[in-house]
Amino acid sequence: MILHNEIYADIRQGDTINDPQFKEGDQLKTFDYIVANPPFSTKSWLKSAKFEDEYHRWGEGIKIGVPPEKNGDYAFLLHIVRSLKQTGCAACILPHGVLFRGNAEAQIRKYLVAEKRYIKGIIGLPANLFYGTGIPACIIIIEKSEAAGRKGVFMIDAKGGYIKDGAKNRLREQDIRRIVDVWQAQRDVPHYARFVPMEEIERNDYNLNIPRYVSAPDTEILQDIDAHLHGGLPKHDIDQLDTYWEVCPSLCDDLFCDHLTRKGYYSLKCNPEAVRDAVTGNVDFRNQKEVFQKSFAEWCDSHRAQLYALLPGFAPKKLIEQLGNSLLAVFEVDKSLVEAYDVYDSLMNYWGETMQDDCYMISSGGWTVQLYTPQPASKKKEKKAATPEDVVCDLLPVPIVIDEYFAEKRDVIAAAEELLAQNETQLAELVEEQAENYLDEGNFPDGKMTDANIKKRMKALDKRTDADEIAVLQKYLDLKGDISLNKKLIKELKYDLLTALVVKYADLSEADIKRLVIERKWFASLALRLDGEMQRISQQLTSKVSALAERYAQTLPEIDAEIADLEGKVAAHLKQMGY
């Protein structure tokens, strides 16, 4: 709470159910807002059976029994309900089982949904989100103010929106934003969100299990027996890719054609190996890429003046909120292969990894840059910078300044390093090839293959009879000499570049820093990430089409004929062998 600048927070420790700390007299204190993540399915939460609870959370007086002692989930939820003002709202994370478990919990659920109508919505979350348990959870939204006129419950099925993060799953930025946007809009989204009328819930006996009300998308692979017998690609499988065909109508025609002999079935126009080329070469797909890049350029243009005008003291959190909202708005305008939330996720990931730190540096210290040499924690002695790799700058990375002002020096160093790599490869190959013949360490004094020992051996050899060995040894020395010269040259070139960098960083104006950070760092990094989204879509479609073609590549009669042919060949070989 201190880190979030809530220094006057009132934090109390105790048994929430049996000895609540927030009270007014002999009753519970009530609040406008409550958020809670109580322990899942607490065992023996009720120290002594109190059917008539003194705080009126359950009991005969409110027509509801005591929650089961082995599952304390509803005890916490009823405590929250009782601790809310009549105009209050609450959100509580509970295990998914509270939505459908029976007996006493079913009675409580009916009380909350039908009689009081306190539950405004339910958000289903992915499994394995929380430490200590892998079971799926849900967020139950309680709102008392509009309970009397409530006509149903708004449900969001967000169980499929996550990313694997080590041993656990994690909600991505786009998953969180999608949940928030859909909840605030209270709009139905196919296979994701739906307002469920109270009558439908009543018909299901107040079972709130989300899959009963929000259907999952059709992702099942149906094995078409007729296609396996007679060939062709089923229409059902191709229709499952309609999200691609809606955006790129000509793409389906470029990939598939009607089967020659079978109505209602299709054939792949190109070889399976050429699917990727067919996708990337399609005119509609290319247009999609151009529109995508144009939309990003428009977003950059709309925020360029704002970013150049950032002054010390600005609020980074407010900035990213504006950037994220406008990015979603730009990419939701046109139907695109890349979802707006995927683009938003790229921005938020870059913000978390890099841009956030940059903005806080600018907010606290302005548009200033300084080179420094990071010191290893284990070394007390200060390290002296000798190459450009030894120095860093957090706000304006060294590679950007090198690319902008010292590209020629960079290319010369790269060429020298490439030549060094070639010489080192040649030396390694020479040693490997001639190890047994001439470059065995046993052939030299003290068993050491030093330059001095090699030169001594060359003097002792006969130029007429040992010419081959002399040539190998001389080549070895020449390559080692070239490598030594290359390393010395690279060291001098890098030191020269480092000196130029130090001078350049000191001379950079605020306008130069802004231009390089905004254009060459922020916008360029985001453009690279978003280009990766288009490549991901291309690869995804290629994989799906290739898998479909492979599924029906051979008919059953063809497989049977191939098996019969192989069996015949094996029988013939066995016969020749005497079996």
What would the keywords be for this entry?
579 residues; alpha+beta; Rossmann fold; 3 domains; three-stranded antiparallel β-sheet
Share of helix, binned: 40-55%
Task: Name the strands of the widest sheet in spatial order.
Answer: 3-4-6-5-7-10
Number of domains: 3
Coarse morphology: extended
Question: What's the assembly state of these chains?
Answer: single chain
Computed CA radius of gyration, to the nearest angstrom: 35 Å
Can you characterise this structure?
The protein is an alpha+beta fold and 579 residues long. The chain folds into 3 domains: 23-212, Vaccinia Virus protein VP39 (Rossmann fold, 3-Layer(aba) Sandwich); 218-359 and 515-579, no CATH class; 388-507. The chain is built from 18 helices and 13 strands. It has helices at 73-82, 104-115, 173-185, 198-203, 225-230, 235-239, 242-247, 249-255, 275-281, 283-308, 316-333, 340-365, 398-405, 407-434, 451-460, 467-507, 510-551, 556-576; strands at residues 23-24, 27-28, 31-36, 84-95, 119-124, 137-143, 152-157, 163-165, 168-170, 193-197, 233-234, 256-258, 265-268. The strands form 4 sheets. A 6-stranded mixed β-sheet has the order 3-4-6-5-7-10, with helices on both faces. A 3-stranded antiparallel β-sheet has the order 11-13-12. Helix 11 runs antiparallel to helix 12 (340-365), helix 12 (340-365) packs antiparallel against helix 17 and helix 15 packs antiparallel against helix 16 (467-507). The longest helix has 42 residues, at 510-551.
